[in-house]
Amino acid sequence: MSTNLRRPDGTHRVVITGTGAVSPAGIGTEALMEAVMDGACCIGPIERFDTGEYEVHNAGEVRGFDGTEHGLTKKEARRFERFVQYAIVASDEALAQAGLDMEAEDPTRVAIAFGTGIGGIDELQSGFATLEQKGPKRVSPLFVPTMIGNIAAGNLAIRYGMKGACHNMVTACATGAHNIGCALRDIRHGYADVALVGGAEESVSPICIAGFANLGALSKAEDPAAASLPFDARRAGFVAGEGAGALVIESLEHALGRDAEPLAEIVGFGSTGDAYHMTAPDPSGDGVARAMADALAEGGFSPADIGHLNAHGTGTPANDATESLALRALAGDELGRRIPVTSIKGTTGHTLGAAGALEAIVCALSVARDCVPPTAGFVEAAEDCPVNVVREAITGCPQKVALSNSLGFGGHNACLAFAPYR
Predict the structure, then answer these.
(1) Which CATH architecture has domain 15-257?
(2) Active site residue 350
(3) How confident is the model at residue 243 (pLDDT cuts 50, 70, 90)?
């Protein structure tokens, strides 16, 4: 039996062959999947700095992380910012699972699209303090190349010898998804054979928590289990998280040519803008609905084919209500109330620039494993979120396609569509 390597329009089919994760659930994709499927809450009191003067005390930290225990040298662990270290550890895992041998590849055909929403915020805060307290001559000569957001992609390229396009698309909390979509299109249209994609973030820092808290975006709940509550009537803001998600994606032709095992297929991508507000989503949900519609259409699917929606689901009043409205606008009122909806942010918190990548991994593996994860923390349905939020893990549930949404400050909307590999 021959395999159709191309889509009906003649472009390449694109599959996932490896995944890697660093998250509040721990190191590794399986640690993330286990926590998400169990509906576990990996949020807790912030340990990295004293929050005595802060109104917010909880976050989704990567606790006890030591890069030297996960493949980094002491020099790398000392020199690289945490978001870069997270990116490397996640990417090492993804490449190992994919079995990608760079010595056997044309390095100019291997691309990278790996982003961060905020970047090296710890180095930025430290550098400013050094400048003000000790003067300009004491600022580290590596301050700029350590702090800038594109340096995760740059260091990954150097580490693995990948010489194709090297991108760092920044769209706030939609960053991870947009980097996947960017590389998806490069492979689909023949500009690359394979790509390392994802996002990383180190946002649990004093300046970030202060800024988000003063914006009124963060949950001030003292109980970690009641802080991140996507779609719940009690929701009152998101919980900051951190980590990295990495995926190896490649044309189906390239994957089968090297005897790789596809995990799932990326069948569609939608990207839209709200053109509405600096932080708030367009309350009509039009931009989100268009992104979902575009991702479905690109794969040749209809709303009736949706097995579940892995929602952006931050737990803020505006986001969850808007996303609920968008789903019903896409699928109609009746179907929109039936499609299973989940958000992993009850487990991990909101990992910002890493969120779209971590959630893409969970969504892709969910369709591959015929399951739908629950939404940790969800108890009481909110009146302004009339959607079918998953309370208990669903298993033995074959799906044609599932969607993963990512939305960012500035009105950036991204949607990825995943299908089981057949």
Answers:
(1) 3-Layer(aba) Sandwich (3.40)
(2) yes
(3) very high
